[in-house]
Amino acid sequence: MAMQSNQDDEPLSEINVVPLVDIILVVLIIFMVTAPMFIKPTINVNLPKAASGDQTNPSKLNIALTADGRINLNGSFTDEAQVSQRAAEELSKNPEVQAIISADKDVAHGRVVGVLDIVKSVGVKKFAISIDKATPKK
């Protein structure tokens, strides 16, 4: 059996994409396996349901009140003084900043009003209360 040689001495003009596809699939699998390690754990807040809520815009002041009464500001637990300080900082950067308050349905109304008072006392004029969208009753 004799091997055929390329008699024309033409350069090889085809690209073999199989190794490239193999490498991309391995990288994709690595990203899929490691992605859950980089995701922050979320705060479980059982929001009240309402049918008349509108969509809110993203904000730099996301305040969540958990069922046990703790305050979470932009993903980290904090106290009222820190909320006030951060709201003042965001207000100095953007006078139209909006605070979005997500309160567990088991949180006392007075606690939500207290957080609203902290935000409004700094000068934030826009705020929204997060809800879960319920189906309207007919």
Helix amount, in percent? 25-40%
Overall mean pLDDT score?
Answer: 79
What letter string, H or E per element, gives the SSE order? HEEEEHEHEE
| Structural class assignment | alpha/beta
Please tell me about this protein's structure.
With 138 residues, the protein is of the alpha/beta class. The chain has a domain at 49-133: Nucleotidyltransferase, domain 5 (2-Layer Sandwich). Helices cover 36% and strands 18% of the residues. It has 3 helices and 7 strands; from the N terminus they run αββββαβαββ. The strands form 2 sheets. A 5-stranded mixed sheet has the order 4-3-2-5-6, with helices on one face. Strand 5 (98-103), helix 3 (109-122) and strand 6 (126-129) form a beta-alpha-beta unit. Helix 2 crosses helix 3. The N and C termini lie far apart (84 Å). The model has no long low-confidence stretch (mean pLDDT 79).
What features would you highlight for this structure?
36% helix; 138 residues; alpha/beta; five-stranded mixed beta sheet; 7 strands; Nucleotidyltransferase, domain 5; single chain; two-stranded parallel sheet
